[in-house]
Design goal:
By secondary structure, the chain is of the alpha/beta class. It has a single domain, classed as Nucleotidyltransferase, domain 5, CATH 3.30.420. Helix content is about 55%, strand content about 20%. It has 6 helices and 5 strands. The chain has a 5-stranded mixed sheet, with helices on both faces. β2 and β3 form a beta hairpin.
């Protein structure tokens, strides 16, 4: 299974393509960030995020797009930007018929570290170890995207959705 993990954000949108199945070794195919400037108009920033995700989908053909579920933050402006960035990934998935898996930050942390309250350093250390990477993914947004993709593969929610979609299409 190939999963595109997305840690939504407007300034830095973490993205990672991870391949594997539960119980088997996972491989990092791509890890990075899509960046935009805070001085750029919002519509241009969102178009850049959309284009970056679209290029990854085109190049790596993921079966699932796993996105961190936007949670309520104290900073409403930041939460809005995060939600808008997540929407770009959702639109691409919908347009292309790609299964979507949404995961909360707590769920992702618990999946990769065993602790839903793990800090960013713990998450980064574990994704580095899980994938056998020579160095930690940077910045933290990229490591978070890796963790989201790993969570999606390990938790199997993506596989269940694919099976359900295939079964519904066969009817």
């Amino acid at each position: 299974m190939r999963v595109l993990g997305v840690d939504p954000g407007l300034t830095r949108c973490g993205v990672a393509v991870i391949e594997g199945t539960p119980g088997r070794t996972l491989s990092a195919i791509y890890v990075g960030v899509i960046t935009t400037s805070a001085q750029t108009p919002i519509e241009i920033r969102l178009a850049s995020v959309e284009q970056g995700i679209e290029e990854l989908v085109e190049q790596y053909e993921p079966e699932v797009i796993a996105i961190e579920r936007v949670f309520s933050q104290h900073n409403v402006r930041s939460a809005m930007g995060t939600a808008q960035s997540a929407a770009m990934a959702l639109v691409i998935a919908g347009r292309r018929g790609i299964t979507v898996a949404m995961h909360t930050p707590t769920e992702v942390k618990a999946a990769v570290t065993g602790n839903g309250r793990a800090d960013k350093a713990q998450v980064t250390a574990m994704v580095t170890r899980i994938l056998g990477l020579p160095e930690a993914p940077k910045p933290a947004d990229a490591a978070d995207a890796v963790a989201i993709a790993i969570c999606s593969i390990w938790r199997g929610s993506a596989q269940r959705r694919i099976a359900a979609a295939l079964a519904a299409g066969a009817r």
